[in-house]
Specification:
Length: 224
C-alpha cells in the first residue's frame, strides 16, 4: 500500500484520514440526534458526497435515527442500491429543491472546488436555504500541508508554478495530467478558503476548527 493510502485512504478505518473524519463528524452526529428527537427522522442532503463517506458512521446509528440521505453530484457516482440513499444529478450552486426541503445540509471538502467567489457565495446560499441546520467542512488555506497535493506550502505558490509541479511530479493521490492545459485546469479547480472567508459565506454559523498539533487543519461551518 502506498504511503498516501496509509494517510488518507477513507476505505481504511485505521488510516489517519478516516480517524480524523470520525473525530470531525461528532458535531454532525449531534445534529442528527437533535433532528431525530424533534422529527422522528432525519432527511440529509449531501452536496458532492458519496456513499463511501457515510460508511464512517455506524449503520446502526443511521438506522436508529431513521436517516435518509440524498446525494447530489454533477456526475454519476458509485451506487450500492441501499434504500437509505437517493442519488441526484445537480449543481450545488443552483439546487432544484424547495426551501428547507431537508433537515440537514451537508458538504465535505466541496466548496473549495466550485470555482470563483461568486460560485462559492451561491453554493453557500443554497446550503443555508435548503435546510435549517447545516454542516460544511473545507480545508484551511493557512494549514501548511495542502490536502490534495499532500505537499507542504505548494498552495502558496503562483498558479502557473503549481501547474508545472503537478504536471511534472507525482503529488498526493491526484492523477498526473496529460497536458499542461489539463494541469492548469486542475489547479484552477482548487481554491482553499480562510476562516474570515468562511465567516463571510456562513454568517449565521459557528465556525469550528479541526486542529493538528495546534494548527487549524480544516474549518467547519455549523448551523444548529
Amino acid at each position: 500500500m502506498a504511503w498516501t493510502d496509509k494517510l488518507i485512504d477513507y476505505k481504511n478505518p485505521h488510516s489517519i484520514g478516516s480517524i480524523l473524519r470520525q473525530r470531525r463528524i461528532a458535531p454532525l452526529l449531534e445534529l442528527v440526534k437533535q433532528c431525530y428527537r424533534e422529527r422522528g427522522g432525519c432527511r440529509i442532503l449531501d452536496i458532492g458526497g458519496t456513499e463511501t463517506y457515510w460508511r464512517i458512521i455506524d449503520s446502526d446509528f443511521l438506522n436508529a435515527h431513521n436517516c435518509r440521505i440524498t446525494l447530489v453530484n454533477t456526475h454519476r457516482v458509485a451506487q450500492s442500491g441501499h434504500p437509505r440513499f437517493t442519488h441526484v444529478i445537480g449543481n450545488g450552486c443552483q439546487l432544484d429543491f424547495s426551501d428547507y426541503a431537508f433537515d440537514i445540509a451537508h458538504s465535505n471538502s466541496v466548496i473549495e472546488h466550485v470555482g470563483n467567489w461568486q460560485n462559492k457565495a451561491a453554493f453557500a446560499a443554497e446550503i443555508r436555504r435548503i435546510a435549517p441546520c447545516y454542516f460544511v467542512q473545507t480545508p484551511n488555506f493557512w494549514f501548511p500541508v495542502e490536502p490534495h497535493y499532500l505537499a507542504p506550502c505548494i498552495h502558496y505558490l503562483p498558479l502557473h508554478i503549481r501547474a508545472i509541479l503537478l504536471f511534472r511530479l507525482p503529488l498526493g493521490r491526484m492523477n498526473r495530467p496529460r497536458t499542461m492545459a489539463e494541469s492548469l485546469q486542475t489547479v484552477q479547480g482548487i481554491s482553499l478558503l480562510t476562516e474570515p472567508m468562511m465567516r463571510t459565506l456562513f454568517p449565521d454559523a459557528d465556525i469550528l476548527a479541526e486542529r493538528i498539533c495546534g494548527m487549524k487543519k480544516s474549518l467547519v461551518a455549523i448551523r444548529r
